[in-house]
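[audit] Reproducing an earlier prediction to check determinism. Same input, same settings, fresh worker. If the tokens differ from the archived copy the diff job will pick it up downstream; this log only records the rerun itself.
[audit] input (338 residues):
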Amino acid sequence: MNHMEQRTATAATPRRLKIVAGSDDFGCSLKDELVTHLRSLNIEVEDLGTSKYYSIGEEVGNRVSQAAKNNDGTETRGLIACGTGAGVSIFANKFPGVYSATCLTPGDAQNARSINNCNVLAVSGMSTPTTVAVEILSKFLDTPFKSPCPASGSEPWPEEIQSFLDGSIEEMSKIGDNNNVSVVDPPCFICSLAKSRQDKDFTPVDVMPGGSMKLLRETPTSAIVRFKAGSVEPAHHHTFGHDLVVMRGSKCVWNLSKGEKYALGVGDYLFTPAGDVHRVKYFEDTEFFIKWDGHWDLFLDEDLAAANAAIERLNCFIGGMNIEIESIGSTASDQLLV
């Protein structure tokens, strides 16, 4: 069968292939030419028309992604065009299972299909003539994954690269799938510092049962402090004001001098002014970073028994970090002088 007979046979036999096409204003003319060419080959085309490059890239990418999930027996690929071909490709690639490549030469398309199993072709309406675009499209349609291509010197891929390509599709298919990707927060320097400290590095706070601390610097002072769940800090004050950031757990702070309360969870910050009397309750094993303006000191304004009795009189309810307190310092023992 000669070349002409092959093309005639291709045009007469529908392929189990569907192309979803679209463009922005800069790629509209080229897209229309390529859609006409595809239909002359008796390939099903869904032409979404013309829109902004980010909108059309998103729509084509979404449809190709959904079709890959449905797996109804018809292979669905995408064809997108904008001024450069880059913008539409970027937006199409936001969707799982979409491998869009901007191709400016037939060799680009052949490489993209062979190496990357490209399923969305992006072309440049401003720099690619129609005749070249048709050749690019033909390579995109007819080049099998892992086949010889310009990047392989038009020779079969070596065994080690074939093996790499065999596993690449499964690996790529997991990218962007929230069920398979663990979301990891950027590491926090202070948290990393705390985790690097062994328990033996922490010194118990004698006047605060359940508490321990590791001084990081003295005058001005900074420290990492830990308290066990259920611990209570009796009412106390310091010579200097202090800032703290909660790194783990949850706590409630009552500022008795100001009649205010603060429910603190991971990431929350609190500044307590110098001399302000405050009482603390820990609901979970808690760890926080604290910094004083000067040296570290602590002056108790009540004992632990008095603190526990005062907290028991309060209606404390924690849920989703919402804490309801009926009253603060409502008895004589709570009216503490600074």
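[audit] rerun output stored. Observation attached for the diff report: The chain has nine helices and 18 strands.
[audit] end
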